[in-house]
């Protein structure tokens, strides 16, 4: 007895592209503006972290020294008190943080499929938006200035409202709880 095995070949449009292997960029060229913008933000955070490591890592050393010193292991951190060693640690730590920040940011923005796909779709949706006319931006009759005036008026109104409510509640609290006047 023989059995026939049915084989189906996928239609040309149904073929899925092979999954990217290794560190290939997911859909290169798509979502350029959004990916670049997110990468700039990642690098700004990385620069902030590098700056703080370079100038403030000694607080971490002092904390570790106090914790280890309490149990008699302070000698483990005392070697970092030498100025040459301290300079190497601050510089080396900054370089490691910068390289790690760039690599992690690059991986999540360009290589990882889910985040790259999200950023590509975001870029596509932002392309569909009808942005307000901003040229020339300095003339008062443009859409941008009209929206700016609305925002400024609402911010001032909310500020005055919150100030008024705060002042009234503070006055009531002063009279009720402290029995004094201002």
Counted beta strands: 0
Radius of gyration: 30 Å
Number of domains: 2
The general outline is flat
Order of helical and strand elements: HHHHH
Approximately how much beta-strand content do the residues carry?
under 5%
Question: What is the CA–CA distance across the termini?
Answer: 104 Å
Question: What is the overall number of helices?
Answer: 5
What would you call the structural class? mainly alpha
Summarize model confidence as the mean pLDDT: 86
Return residue spans where pLDDT drops below 50 for at least 5 consecutive residues: none
Characterization of this structure:
By secondary structure, the chain is mostly helical. The protein folds into 2 domains: 25-127, no CATH class; 131-182. It is built from 5 helices and no strands. It has helices spanning 32-70, 75-78, 83-111, 113-127, 143-178.
Question: Can you summarize this structure?
Answer:
With 182 residues, the chain is an all-alpha fold.
Tell me the layout of helices and strands.
Blueprint: H1 32-70, H2 75-78, H3 83-111, H4 113-127, H5 143-178
List keywords for this structure.
182 residues; mainly alpha; 2 domains; flat
């Amino acid at each position: 007895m023989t059995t026939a095995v049915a084989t189906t070949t996928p239609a040309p449009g149904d073929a899925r592209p092979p999954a990217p292997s290794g560190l290939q960029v997911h859909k290169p060229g798509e979502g350029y503006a959004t990916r670049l913008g997110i990468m700039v933000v990642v690098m700004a955070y990385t620069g902030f972290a590098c700056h703080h490591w370079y100038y403030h890592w000694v607080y971490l050393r002092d904390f570790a020294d106090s914790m280890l010193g309490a149990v008699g292991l302070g000698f483990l951190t005392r070697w970092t008190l030498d100025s040459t060693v301290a300079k190497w640690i601050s510089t080396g730590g900054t370089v490691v943080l910068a390289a790690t920040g760039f690599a992690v940011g690059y991986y999540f923005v360009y290589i990882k499929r889910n985040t790259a796909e999200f950023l590509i779709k975001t870029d596509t949706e932002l392309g569909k938006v009808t942005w307000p006319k901003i040229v020339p931006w300095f003339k008062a009759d443009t859409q941008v200035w009209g929206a700016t005036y609305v925002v400024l008026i609402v911010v001032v109104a909310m500020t005055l409202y919150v100030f008024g409510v705060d002042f009234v509640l503070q006055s009531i609290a002063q009279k009720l709880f402290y029995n004094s006047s201002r």
